[in-house]
Amino acid sequence: MTYKNELSVGALEVFGFQIAELLYSYMSHLVAEPVKIAIYSSYSANYLMVLKNILHGIYKKKSVLIVEKIEDAEIVIADSAVNVNDHQVLFYFEDVHRIETWKKLAIYIQTVLIKRRTQLNI
Predict the structure, then answer these.
(1) Considering the entire predicted model, what is its pTM?
(2) Helix or strand run (H / E) with residue 22
(3) Coil, helix or strand at residue 107
């Protein structure tokens, strides 16, 4: 109502949509639990640190939480075969030096985050 006399109908619709998206994003960050990820590397301890540092650089702790125990994780990122429970997903991380592997991981994590937020029905 405040901007009704100051903006055109089209601009007001766009402005309203932007405000709604901003509120939806804010609410989903407050309500959604972070995705718990465990990292397991059988080849190199450096892989573990690289993965942790990059994931912490890309995602906020409110979105992605890196856990130490594989049993506590929803997603297990590993460079070899690892036994996971029924409620867990194993993401095979082929090679730290291949951009395609990073892209697949980012797409997968984003998909999980989007699904989780859309299930909130906000």
Answers:
(1) 0.67
(2) helix 9-31
(3) helix
